[in-house]
Write a structure and sequence with these properties.
By secondary structure, the chain is α/β, with parallel strands linked by helices. It has helices at 26-40, 79-93, 111-118, 123-126, 141-145, 152-164, 178-192, 208-211, 251-259, 314-326; strands at residues 13-20, 44-49, 65-69, 100-104, 127-137, 167-171, 198-200, 238-243, 265-274, 279-286, 289-294, 304-310. The strands form two sheets. It has a seven-stranded parallel beta sheet with strand order 3-2-4-1-5-6-7, sandwiched between helices. The protein has a five-stranded antiparallel beta sheet with strand order 8-12-9-10-11, with helices on one face. Helix 7 links the parallel strand 6 and strand 7. The longest helix has 15 residues, at 26-40. It is globular and about 60 Å long. It starts with 12 loop residues before the first strand and ends with a helix.
Length: 327
């Protein structure tokens, strides 16, 4: 039955993998899926993977069972870490059962690497991979595909994520003119070379019943469910830069500072204290847009800024940072 995703005669735990390039909106989609679980009275487990050594989004999953994998992209280099995390989760499930598991890879993760772990023993005996949900950023899709404004590395990464996805979520459609949106959808269909379900969304909102459908029905271990030749591109030029000792900032000045970062800074997130508010805010920066959310003092977070990009010039970023600090 459509949407009846948690009824599983084998008693395996259903697993949903969320994939998508930096700033596409994976976490927002995940939060919407978790809200659906809450309404249904279901207990989820979450594995979050971060590129850097600091998780600045953990506060979004307060009171949830979260397992963190830091400083990686769930590629072949840290598959063993993923297995250790899965083992830890299995042990915890003995006294704290789960109804569903979500795995959110980094913005540069190849979901094939996650799938390989889930389809290996003993995990295949206890978990049922339901769907790989790949989130695409409609507002930046054409730019990321252009040989003039993007790199081969970025194009390969997005292709890997798209081709492995059993469901494609085209997010941020409100930022794109309607005629351009149709062109983007046609290009995605042509690029993937396969029949793909493409769902449009704004702020990651989609019919939850559709998101939770089982879309991977038969998989041969070691091969893509789409029978795609498997290659993994290592992300040699991808960097995560951590800025600490952050001053109290004026909101408008900080937004301006972010938007004047070099174009190869693709993502920014962290915590800052806004002047006159006497409160810490988390911020998310992507697609040249910034969003702020107040952080409860009880969480005891410290100001920190994480910038993620390709081939970052550390000296240039630090000079840019000093300009903000002096203000």
């Amino acid at each position: 039955m459509r949407g009846e995703i948690f009824i599983n005669s084998s008693k395996k735990i259903p697993v949903y993998v969320l994939s998508g390039f930096l700033g596409s909106g994976k976490t927002t989609v995940l939060l919407n899926m978790l809200e659906h679980c809450k309404k249904k009275g279901l207990q989820p487990g979450i594995i979050l993977n971060e590129i850097g050594q600091t998780n600045v989004e953990g506060h979004l999953f307060e009171n949830q069972k979260v397992f963190e994998l830091l400083d990686g992209c769930i590629c072949c280099t840290i598959q063993e870490d993923l297995k250790e995390t899965m083992n830890e989760l299995i042990t915890e499930m003995e006294h704290s059962p789960l109804d569903v598991l979500f795995i959110e890879g980094t913005g540069v993760a190849n979901p094939m690497e996650i799938q390989e772990v889930l389809l290996s023993h003993p995990y295949t005996d206890q978990f049922d991979l339901m769907s790989i949900i790949t989130v695409l950023d409609a507002s930046n899709y054409l730019e990321y595909q252009s040989i003039f404004s993007s790199s081969t590395e970025v194009r390969n990464l997005i292709y890997e994520q798209m081709i492995c996805g059993s469901l494609l979520v085209l997010n941020k459609t409100d930022l794109v003119p309607l005629n351009q949106l149709e062109s983007i959808k046609q290009k995605i269909t042509k690029k993937s070379k396969q029949e793909k379900t493409i769902m449009e969304s704004v702020y990651g909102k989609i019919d939850s019943e559709l998101l939770f459908e089982k879309r991977i029905h038969s998989v041969t271990i070691g091969k893509s469910p789409l029978d795609v030749e498997h290659h993994h591109h290592h992300h040699s030029t991808l960097q995560a830069l951590k800025l600490e000792d952050c001053p109290v900032v004026r909101k408008k000045e900080f937004e301006k500072w972010l938007k004047h970062l070099p174009a190869n800074v693709l993502r920014g997130k962290g915590f800052v204290e806004i002047e006159s508010s006497h409160q810490l805010y988390s911020f998310q920066y992507a697609s040249r847009k910034v969003a702020f959310t107040p952080v409860p003092a009880a969480l005891n977070r410290k100001p920190v800024i994480i910038l993620i990009g390709l081939g970052l010039d550390t000296e240039q970023i630090n000079d840019h940072w000093k300009q903000l600090v002096k203000q």
